Amino acid sequence: MKRQRKRILITGGAGFLGSHLCERLLGEGHEILCVDNFYTGAKENVLGLLDHPHFELLRHDITFPLYVEVDEIYNLACPASPVHYQFDPVQTTKTSVHGAINMLGLAKRVRATILQASTSEVYGDPEVHPQTEAYWGRVNPIGPRACYDEGKRCAETLFFDYHGQHGLGIKVARIFNTYGPRMHPNDGRVVSNFIVQALSNAPITIYGDGSQTRSFCYVDDLIDGLVQLMASEAGFTGPLNLGNPNEITIGALAEQIVTMTGARSSIDYQPAPRDDPTQRCPDISLAAERIDWAPGIGLEEGLKHTIAYFEKLLLNQ
Ligand SMILES: NC(=O)c1ccc[n+]([C@@H]2O[C@H](COP(=O)([O-])OP(=O)(O)OC[C@H]3O[C@@H](n4cnc5c(N)ncnc54)[C@H](O)[C@@H]3O)[C@@H](O)[C@H]2O)c1
Q1: How would DSSP label each residue in 204-240?
Q2: How far is CA 113 from the centre of its chain?
Q3: Are 214 and 256 in contact (CB under 8 A)?
Q4: Residues 8-20: pLDDT tens digits?
Q5: Which amino acid residue places its CA nearest to atom 28 of ligand 1?
């Protein structure tokens, strides 16, 4: 059966995840409107799509209203790494909150289903492990990460209130650490940081003693999850954890990247930043049950693709 072509708006479409999502949905035959203010994203991320007849790129800041006709909205616009979201914290909260209000208003007007890219940061520094969707989180409302964490929490509130009050079709994904090609090379995220440092034979910076754990999901798996969540049954809203539950210590990740790149890097230990979670790992049983999703790409394979991307990027700089 031929798939129905939809008009899909992707905010933050020129960012890391957004550009992969544009590519995927375009490949499935849909019309894509990519909206981005290029705060952390770049036109280069979607350069290969610009000539596609079903792709349109619009420079726009979602803290201002947008009037377009679409069938589905993926709301991804928001700086995602601490370096970027803490640079202008007021703008970060505005993007999450005003941006959500604008995109929800649009979805309500045109009766589109809207998916929110929420985050594991809504769990803050968790007391339960791994985190299920039922956990309410432990977030410092006035800490340096609050502009992002609380902004995303408020966006979730808005999504569920639009759903309850106006019957809007919503989907909320709580995304855990994701990595892959097109991550920003200087945004302080751990995978890109370690790879760039290793490829330059520079010391690998570990904040804290390296015993804190994270779990990393490869971008292709995550995009599968977002698309499957959007396609899930009408009444299913989430929130739904999407991430890879395989935990690794930051120290072990550094070692693996050093080995895979053949780097001669030493390890440089620096104090842990304030409110840095010590452990972060998703419980993804709900995703298995409701959208039949689980990540399939292991860390070694994902790192191989990511290292190859950064090798090429550094060579061309
Ligand atoms: N990558 C991850 O590990 C991860 C984890 C959890 C949640 N998320 C969420 O997924 C989404 C995408 O993250 P990413 O990793 O691709 O980050 P990214 O910074 O690469 O992408 C965000 C995009 O949003 C754009 N943007 C920012 N503010 C905007 C505004 N006001 N108007 C229009 N565009 C704006 C940026 O220019 C960028 O292109 C974010 O909402 C983020 O919070 C990502």
Answers
A1: EEEESSS--EEE-EEHHHHHHHHHHHHTS-TT----E
A2: 19
A3: no
A4: 999 999 999 999 9
A5: 78
